[in-house]
Specification:
Helix content is 37%, strand content 27%. By secondary structure, it is an alpha/beta fold. Helix 5 crosses helix 7 and helix 6 crosses helix 7 (222-249).
Length: 357
Amino acid sequence: MKRKVIFSLDAGGTNLVFSAIENGKPLPQIHSIPTGSKSLDEFISKLVKGFSGLQEKLNVQPSAISFCFPGPADYEAGIIGKLENLPFFTGGTPLAKMLEHHFLVPVFINNDGDLFALGEALGGLLPEINKHSEKQYKNLLGVTLGTGFGGGIVHKGSLFSGDNSAGGEINRSFNYLNPDQSVEEVLSIRGIQHMYAKVSGLDFSKVPEPRKIYELGMKQGAEGEKAREAWRQFGVVLGEMLANAVTLTDSCVVVGGGLSGAHQLFLPAAVERMNGSFVKADGSKLDRMETNAYNWEDEQCRKDFLKDDSIRLQVPNTNLTQAYYPKKKVAVGISKLGTSEAVAVGAYAFAAKKLGF
């Protein structure tokens, strides 16, 4: 039987890391090449060299190539637009067709937030929730916190990409603390550094890396208080953005990316913000969302989320009863696969579905 192997790529700012997934599981062999390139031709040559090197290592012809790549892009067509971080992509590069022509296999390109969300929906947080919950959840919003801020939406096992390959581009949401800025100016590595500089009074050039800000926040004392305040404000901005998004997706939420490791310091504030309220014209309050958000990483919140609040209703004019869930709930948790593995699982699943296996 032919092996069903999908080749994938993690196109990072430092390295291009080529990997393979078989039956939904990443294989240990990887092939890495420095990202830095002076021209589009040099970069494309590295892509070809990387996938060819992986092919030689594994001695297998892939069923497809499936990977994430920065946008803007027409992902369905495999065309990459003008990229800020890779300036030799000047707009309109048919990358998928080029790789298909060279390797003679189907090529699928998606946004990293999309594939992260898909991987967590199929093999990460969503299955974990459903393993413990009486009610079964079918939708998931995934967000990644790292160099930038990305997202993806999964609806009943399939990606929601939109009509212009721009579905889930939540980095364009407004920043609650500064509406003139995008939310990415807070929900990113530079964002938490700017936030810490503001609350600590430090010059930005002297602000430590996010890991150090997290470590400070886990300590007592004045410096710890400053770091915790920076992460709290980070959480407020995240929670406001998630409240807007979940109002549309009505889904659980999974958070990934390098900054997700500091979730102890920002996730409680985010969930609290999601469960906040508006003030109506008559002074009364209106819940911020129609649903109630629960911090999956907090033991008591998780128990409250999993509590069976259903009631049995009598069906009129029959002897039948029906379950009713009057309290609407969504869980907000951290990646269970790890961001890189979730992206790989999502890349495999997307290609496998397209190929019918």
